[in-house]
Amino acid sequence: MRWWWTIGWLVGCAGVEMSEEPTAPPEAPQQEQLARVEAPPPAPSEDKVMSPAAERGLALATDTHRLLPDNVGNDLVCTSCHLENATRPKAAPWVGVTDRYPRYRKRSGKVDTLQERINGCFQRSMNGTPLATDSEEMAALVAYAEFVSEGVDGVDMPGAGMPRITSPEPPNAARGQHVYETQCMACHQANGEGLTLPDGQLMFPALWGDGSFNVGAGMARLDTAAAFVKWNMPLNQGGTLTDQEAYDVAAWFTVQQRPDLEGKEGDWPNGDKPADARY
Length: 279
Ligand code: HEC
Ligand code: HEC
Description:
Blueprint: H1 3-12, H2 29-35, H3 52-62, H4 64-67, H5 83-86, H6 97-100, E1 103-105, E2 110-112, H7 114-123, H8 136-149, H9 173-183, H10 185-188, E3 195-196, E4 202-204, H11 222-232, H12 243-253
Antiparallel strand pairs: 1-2, 3-4
Helix pairs in contact: 3-8, 9-12, 11-12
The chain binds heme C (HEC) (2 copies).
């Protein structure tokens, strides 16, 4: 039973175009966002069996730092950000991703294959090193992405990526610290370093510190972090923070100490750096 499909699409598809609701009264949109359920894209049929390679890919995605210690330099797993086994809308789901690559990306200044995109997350989000393109592990991750993408038109898929929001007022890190302390700290801890059990099982991922993503990661950028938090945090309460709170808390945690990225000067080689780039 692929419970995460149903839950993910029902919860996450609520209000795909939500932030702009000019006719709604000011206090209403939040509730409306949560209540509105749009038609989910087609999900793979229940009886579809995962190939052994796709099963392996799922295991790698959910237990990355333990299974791939040579390629992962922090405490995270892929599904720390790609929630619900990488099927949750607005948490950069891998659903349909096989249709979205190869694709031109400004950061690399070239057309990236899906394998290169995956390795981008290994080097930045996981603060690690790329997998060999022809490795069994890369094939497994791609097989899992293919599994969740089957039967889906991924090109203009609602819920792809992390739909960006805007900050009503300039983001304020001091207010964000307060949001952090009241809404995030219980799980992500006072020092931001999350919680890993003695056996290596990850409970709560690190938002900063050595166990977190590096400065070159998408999540280290203000707009990306604010969007992710808005739709997905606090855990299981996505959509409950205001856009301002999401921006404020992102302004707080993205600037905390985290690993550097060697070679980051080579990013955006064509001079089209986004406004929220950290370097
Ligand atoms: C710290 C958070 C984080 C972690 C951990 C992470 N990613 Fe990502 N990933 C992102 C962000 C952010 C994006 C870009 C989303 C956006 O900008 O809309 C992304 C995008 C992707 C995409 C492209 C999705 C699309 O639709 O374009 C793939 C594929 C991907 N990641 C694979 C992986 C794999 C494989 C791992 C584990 C080895 C991983 N990611 C770990 C944050 C993360
Ligand atoms: C109830 C516990 C809980 C609370 C509260 C919570 N989170 Fe999370 N958060 C998680 C878990 C668990 C994950 C990893 C996803 C998963 O395992 O499903 C996560 C993932 C994340 C990630 C991506 C992974 C990483 O390490 O960067 C960010 C960013 C994040 N949370 C920020 C926040 C912010 C900001 C708040 C407060 C507004 C918050 N979280 C509140 C449990 C929580």
